[in-house]
């Protein structure tokens, strides 16, 4: 999906420029665990910026699980006597990047939920997969000793595909005679989401960009909900399928993150 790659590329470039920018010419301190002493420190100091470029940023991979409401699809499969239901949970892989502007977070993320399949009647297989991409707007609730906590509002788009295929073996000639042994149904729309992002620079040193920040290897957690609204009808192999079920990508997700951070 173009939205996925656009939002991810923008946020990745923003964060990479910050994390890989020039550093002060001084000896590097050793990497350490985050300090536990918070005495005399602000719990949420504003992040410094250099013009329109943030000095504090993060770039992470994420992996977890998404919970997707496929009820309308499963109802149609049941009414068509497929004798199978698509699962409601999917493994997800993706990435996120962001920069801090004072106490505001700007960035983006892109995530794919990986294909899962079920066996259906008449020796058929039904599978579902998809992806979403968003621009992220958040607010720094807490930033201290390399720990960052922020609620995030996300806006973007999604795409989902349902593939129905025959599992029967066929010769080359039979495949040429019956080329429609598989059908792909697609659904696309706009997407909104709310999430909470918690990240910790687990192994790092004091940042060159701000005395109140740490830079290094980060781990974290992101929990969120999604609500999608389709902007066109279902498509079957690229053509409109007018009688498709009412559906938008809706559900939630939980993901662990790992990467580089400077906050």
3D structure, described in words:
The protein has 263 residues and is mainly β. It has a single domain, classed as Porin (Beta Barrel). 13% of the residues lie in helices and 55% in strands. The protein has three helices and 13 strands; from the N terminus they run H-E-E-E-H-E-E-E-E-E-H-E-E-E-E-E. The protein has an eight-stranded antiparallel β-barrel with strand order 3-4-5-6-8-9-10-13. The chain is elongated. Mean pLDDT is 88; it is low at 20-26.
Number of helices: 3
CATH classification, class level: Mainly Beta
Estimated radius of gyration: 22 Å
Q: What class do helices, strands and sheet pairing give?
A: mainly beta
SSE string:
HEEEHEEEEEHEEEEE
How many E strands? 13
Largest sheet: 8 strands, antiparallel, barrel
* Strand order, largest beta sheet: 3-4-5-6-8-9-10-13
Poorly predicted segments? 20-26
Number of domains: 1
Q: Would you tell me the overall average pLDDT?
A: 88
Distance between the termini: 30 Å
Summarize it.
The chain has three helices and 13 strands. The protein has about 260 residues and is mostly beta strands.
Topology:
Elements: H1 2-19, E1 49-50, E2 53-54, E3 56-68, H2 71-79, E4 89-101, E5 104-120, E6 124-139, E7 142-144, E8 147-166, H3 172-177, E9 182-206, E10 214-230, E11 235-236, E12 239-240, E13 250-262
Antiparallel strand pairs: 1-2, 3-4, 3-13, 4-5, 5-6, 6-8, 7-8, 8-9, 9-10, 9-11, 10-13, 11-12
